Amino acid sequence: MKHLILGAGAAGISAARKILKEKPDDEIIIVSEDTEVYSRCMLHRFISGERDAAGLNFINDDLLERRNVTWIKGKTLTRLDADSKTVYAGDEKVASGDTILIATGANSVTPPIGDLRTAKNAFGLRHLSDARSIVNCAKNAEKVAIIGAGLVGLDACYALLELGKNGLTSPQITVIEMAPSALAINVDAHAAEAYQKKFEEKGVTFLLARKVVGTKSDGNGSITAVELDGGDSRLTSLSVPCDMVVMAVGVRPAIAFLEGSGVKTERAVVVDDYLATNVPGIYAAGDAAGLSGIWPNAQKQGEFAAYNMTGTKWAYDDRFAIKNTVNFFGLLTLSVGAIKPEEGDETLVKEDRGNYRKLILRDGAVAGVILQGEIGGSGFWQHLIKNKIRIDTLGKSPWKVSYADFFGVENNGEYKWVV
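The structure assignment produced for this chain is given below.
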């Protein structure tokens, strides 16, 4: 069989690897807009100079050089013919297969505000090409505006601060965020404040609960300032001067080429429990399927899709993706599940000089946990939250819960969950 994989990211590459393991003689064609394989999670390290492009490559073997693997690079897909399972780039027929995996990932969202979509000094941060553009522009940028204070925005901010370690001058950075706190979807306001203070100590300015409503330009295609609304009624509108803008306001699945193909899409490609679309033989995984933005989940989805593409029916049931790890300036935070309590929840907080811990209890089970500082030995929380396991029956303080409360040992010496 011939398998056509669209995308060379986490889902696509893991699918290719699994297909070769299951069906060593099957043919694989990978088509991607990218011309290099790289980890999107590490793009900020490229900006900072900590790694070069080769250092972002997460393939450590000869996968792409194997005799039955063809990689077609640099193709921006514009159309899919679902009947013939063929993809096109403009009028060019690029490739076809007996099965297709849509693993095209996602693209940065660019707000339709002012000149953000057209300016030559405004960039998203999703692709290696974005990171290269940011590096080139940063060489002459004294002031940078970052729109969005989520993980991507703060990754960009941290990377630009690190430029000073590589012989370049770190720019003056202003971070603009619509929410009242940074990292609003990752941690609670208290945990976020700890990071904000560390960035502010490095000279970064945060403008929270403020919305970008316009831009000023120099007439030659570059933005010279972003304009903000008044936000809180006590504030006034504000113009933030800048030589570069980094947009980190979210992503959207890269599936525009599916329009008119017959493959069902909503916000993302619609898949069933087997990662199959409504068109037989066509599957989707990773950001294109909208199931999870977490790298390990995308890899796992690619593997499960590969099983199904090669004839083995494996249902993908791990759709729990509410997990974040944050690490800036050596301060580590893990959040799993809910970060804000609902009505009727019980919230427990424990804090000392180096640690902040928060539990949200719902009907006797842990609905969410935030651990900042020391997070060792905390892996069991995800299992408890995902499976809504009650801890109120243990007869002990929730702060005393550990692996030992949920693990037993079978006769063969292996650990097993006992709750």
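Interim note for the steering committee: The first helix runs from residue 10 to 22. Residues 8 and 101 are 11 Å apart (CA to CA).
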